[in-house]
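Researcher: I'd like a candidate sequence for this fold, 362 residues long. If you have to choose between options at a position, lean toward the conservative one.
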């Protein structure tokens, strides 16, 4: 499974006459604006800007980047950001997709899906949202309500899913079942269970993984507009793949919280695992580009180890990273310092404890 999750750091720009701030500034601006770029109408809040580029968060939650010279008929439309309502977002999705699609909604989600039995998806996403936010709230997180409806798009089959991604310029690796797109703030997936007349849990790992990314990025666990360590983001999503975390009906033993697929991967790579794996994983995202499978299982193992053995420190660390300044760089040195603040800097000892912990999992 490949998760499409990219750190955003683009700087955007607004016309000087519309801002009481310098041309090179980071917002968000204290207003919403409406503008037209080509044939596209964009309404939202300027997040950051330079003289050459503008970044707006649209009322749909998507990010829009363009040079200000292409903006026409711009005007202010409000003094603060206001996302679309559930019903407004539902109407927009009905216009976006053809008549073979229907749109369902719940309290926080709007889901575009083929007509028929796929209508259950909104309730499934909402059930996960409740489990995730409850898990985080009881661990001390001060969660915010999403500013926009959370959108998911469910396709009938793999062919439709891959074709839609290709049309939008997203390159998917073979075997990808779904992804969360940080730019549009949407989940895209296809229903492997429906396609094969099986139970919907045929694709549950992907659904939960991507829903974790989306929900965490919209309630304040992750900072959507600040660079977040890849191992931390992916580790949390992989922890939630275990039924003991997302299913309130599951028993509450450690076995129910183990992601056995990632555990098997970790043990497979153990003999060839370098001694400096933890510093490499923590200080940089490079391993996810060069050794993806081992990076994912390492991210899960470290996250699960810390969450199980040092729960307070893990949550405090997650909160610190999630509170980072928007559009700020996160250097290797700063990553290491933040991690050491909560877990110490003796990586040899920590690595030994991690391997011992994993060896005892059953």
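Model: Candidate sequence:
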């Amino acid at each position: 499974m490949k998760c499409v999750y990219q750190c955003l750091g683009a700087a955007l720009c607004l016309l000087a006459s519309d801002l009481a701030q310098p041309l090179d500034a980071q917002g968000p601006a204290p207003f919403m604006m409406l503008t037209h770029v080509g044939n596209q109408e964009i309404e939202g809040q300027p997040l950051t800007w330079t003289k050459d580029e503008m970044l707006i968060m649209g009322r749909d939650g998507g990010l829009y980047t363009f040079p200000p010279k292409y903006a026409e008929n711009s005007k202010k439309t409000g003094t603060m950001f206001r996302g679309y309502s559930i019903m407004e977002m539902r109407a927009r999705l009905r216009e976006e997709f053809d008549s073979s699609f229907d749109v369902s909604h719940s309290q926080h989600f709007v889901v575009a899906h083929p007509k028929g039995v796929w209508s259950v998806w909104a309730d499934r996403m909402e059930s996960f949202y409740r489990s995730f936010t409850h898990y985080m709230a009881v661990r001390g997180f001060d969660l915010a309500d999403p500013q926009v409806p959370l959108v998911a798009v469910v396709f009938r089959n793999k062919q439709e899913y891959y074709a839609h991604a290709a049309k939008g310029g997203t390159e998917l690796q073979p075997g990808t079942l779904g992804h969360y797109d940080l730019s549009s703030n949407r989940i895209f997936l296809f229903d492997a269970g429906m396609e094969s007349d099986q139970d919907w849990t045929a694709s549950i790992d992907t659904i939960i993984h991507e829903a974790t990314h989306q929900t965490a990025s919209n309630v304040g666990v992750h900072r959507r507009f600040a660079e977040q360590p890849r191992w931390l983001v992916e580790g949390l999503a992989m922890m939630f793949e275990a039924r003991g975390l997302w299913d309130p009906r599951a028993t509450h033993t450690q076995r129910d919280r183990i992601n056995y697929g990632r555990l098997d991967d970790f043990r497979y790579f153990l003999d060839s695992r370098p001694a400096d794996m933890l510093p490499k994983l923590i200080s940089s995202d490079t391993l996810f580009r060069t050794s993806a499978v081992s990076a994912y299982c390492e991210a899960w193992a470290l996250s699960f180890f810390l969450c199980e053995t040092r729960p307070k420190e893990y949550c405090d660390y997650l909160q610190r990273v999630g509170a980072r300044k928007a559009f700020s760089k996160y250097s290797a040195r700063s990553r290491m310092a933040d991690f050491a603040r909560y877990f110490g800097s003796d990586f040899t000892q920590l690595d030994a404890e991690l391997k011992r912990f994993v060896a005892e999992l059953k």
